[in-house]
Design a protein that fits this description.
The chain has 1 helix and 13 strands, in the order βββββαββββββββ. It has 212 residues and is an all-beta fold.
């Protein structure tokens, strides 16, 4: 059964990761630049308000969509002081996350999928990208990374609900925990969502990259 956590009131962070930890697959976007958040300009100057999501021993189980995976549904509209159901735009993200792998699972395999509730638009966050080995690692961003600066569109939540799914890009053992995540995920919004914004259409998930 899916572990479903409804978060109403949540408690972030700062720190230096490359922008290629962020990808958007609905529709397809892929960021490969090695720009740190502290070097970003342009849309970085836009005013924004942040809210933090605390991660406490969140288990990372299997591949995307598996019934064992932990899913969080977060009322971001309420967190930003708006009426429940109000549209919200998320334009920035920051993280300070420690991953502890289990068994032979790699740090680079733990991933967070950050989407709207319908999974019709969103982005993926792989904080341990490039760390193709087991163990413990702490990964931080150098402040808030603006999505537009990373070449990604803002994430529009039509109903104000954010969906977080924690999953593995390679499942070492089915129905077993591959890693635990602790720390903070920070989300930024201009509050409220700009009017007349067209929602991104549903796109397919790319196949998870597997070990060779």
């Amino acid at each position: 059964m899916t572990s479903l956590i409804s978060v109403a009131a949540i408690a972030a962070l700062a720190g230096a990761a490359s922008a290629d930890v962020l990808t958007s697959e609905r529709p397809f976007y892929d960021v490969k630049t090695e720009t740190t958040a502290s070097e970003l300009t342009g849309s970085s100057a836009r005013a924004g308000f942040t809210r933090d999501v605390s991660l406490v021993d969140v288990a990372s189980w299997d591949t995307f969509g598996d019934s064992s995976n932990v899913v969080m549904l977060i009322d971001m509209a309420a967190l930003f002081g708006l009426s429940s159901g109000s549209a919200i735009d998320l334009n920035g993200i920051a993280w300070d996350v420690t991953i502890n792998t289990v068994g032979a699972s790699w740090l680079s395999e733990a991933r967070m999928e950050i989407t709207d509730q319908a999974i019709s638009a969103g982005l993926g966050l792989t904080v341990g990208i490039g760390n193709d080995f087991a163990g413990t690692g702490t990964f931080t961003s150098a402040g808030v990374l603006k999505l537009q600066d990373a070449g990604l569109p803002d994430l529009i939540l039509a109903d104000g609900i954010l969906r977080l799914e924690f999953w593995e890009t390679f499942d070492d053992v089915a129905d077993e925990i591959d890693a635990f995540l602790n720390g903070t995920l920070t989300l930024q919004s201009s509050v409220p969502a700009p009017s007349g914004v067209a929602l991104l259409g549903l796109g397919g998930l790319v196949a998870a990259r597997r070990r060779r």
